[in-house]
């Protein structure tokens, strides 16, 4: 009979540590560790996480080894949702700032602007566009005027 994959993982991480140390790391009894080894019991997820943290390993690694989640489920970005009531004031303010920056297109190093400043900037940008358009129209008008003077000279 082959040993369970979670026991292979535990052995690989714990190395030559005794069953007592493994039990201490996971917060369980030594007999429980023996049942893990024989495959009679599967470790509870919280005990695997505790074990992984004891040995400075990622908890996801332990959960995958025990079959609680698949490798493909752990891939990519993982977003943990927390109720606003559970956030500290600092975490809540940070989230509000992140959302406002995303909503208003601010870069991380850009100073936030008041609504009045944003409107002024938009008017300035619009004004610059109007100035460019005015200059283009004046240029065309000058060309037509020059062309008209040229026609007058040719006809005389």
UniProtKB/TrEMBL annotation:
Question: InterPro entries from the xrefs?
Answer: Cro/C1-type_HTH, Lambda_DNA-bd_dom_sf
Superkingdom classification of source: Bacteria
Region span, Disordered: 104-125
Report the coiled-coil segments: none
Residue ranges of domain HTH cro/C1-type in the record: 23-63
Q: What is this protein called?
A: Helix-turn-helix transcriptional regulator
Origin species, per record, is Gordonia amicalis
Q: Lineage of the source organism?
A: Bacteria, Bacillati, Actinomycetota, Actinomycetes, Mycobacteriales
């Amino acid at each position: 009979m082959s040993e369970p994959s979670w026991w292979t993982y535990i052995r690989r991480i714990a190395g030559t540590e005794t069953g007592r140390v493994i039990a201490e790391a996971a917060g369980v009894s030594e007999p429980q560790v023996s049942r893990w080894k024989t495959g009679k019991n599967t470790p509870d997820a919280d005990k695997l996480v505790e074990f992984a943290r004891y040995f400075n390993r990622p908890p996801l690694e332990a959960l995958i080894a025990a079959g609680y989640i698949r490798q493909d489920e752990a891939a990519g970005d993982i977003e943990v949702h927390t109720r606003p009531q559970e956030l500290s004031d600092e975490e809540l303010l940070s989230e509000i700032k992140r959302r406002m920056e995303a909503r208003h297109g601010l870069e991380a190093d850009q100073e936030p602007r008041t609504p009045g400043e944003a409107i002024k900037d938009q008017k300035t940008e619009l004004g610059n566009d109007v100035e460019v358009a005015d200059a283009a129209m004046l240029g065309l008008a000058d060309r037509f005027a020059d062309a008209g003077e040229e026609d007058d000279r040719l006809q005389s």
